[in-house]
Amino acid sequence: VVAGGKGAGNGLHQLNRPTDVLIDKETDSLIICDRENYRVVRWSRRSGTTQGEILIDNIDCWGLAMDEQRYVYVSDDEKHEVRRYQLGEKNGTLVAGGNGKGGGLN
User: Fold this and answer.
1) What is the chain's alpha carbon radius of gyration, rounded to the nearest angstrom?
2) Which Gene3D superfamilies would you find in this protein's record (predicted)?
3) Does the chain have fewer CB atoms within 10 Å around its N or its C terminus?
4) What would the pLDDT profile of 15-60 be if each residue is shown by its tens digit?
């Protein structure tokens, strides 16, 4: 077990329905969609790590991606949008969607 493993819950040592994970090689950590806790967390891959750090909260995270400039892209299932974040940034920039649920390309 490299993250969580203490049963479902909302403590920083717990995850609740994680839906996606990516590896940040620069910080040797995992960035995890912790969906039922409405947050994105970072867990160090170094041994002895016992809890995560909240990067983004109040988000119904479903998926993650990171580009070469280390921007993190997060899909929000509840808001039907994708936002781009610099690590440490809380609000992000809307890059796709944001117009509610629908089949349109906007």
Assistant:
1) 14
2) TolB, C-terminal domain
3) N
4) 888 899 999 999 899 999 999 999 999 988 876 777 789 999 999 9
> What are the φ and ψ backbone dihedral angles of 59, each rounded to 5 degrees?
-140, 135
Per residue in 12-46, is it b (16+ CB within 10 Å) or e — as a string? bebbbebbbebebeeeebbbbbbbebbbbbbbbee
59 three-class SS: coil
Beta bridge partners, 86, equal 71
CATH 3.40.50.1260 for domain 18-97: no
CB atoms within 10 A of CB 69: 7
Is the model's pTM score more than 0.85?
A: no
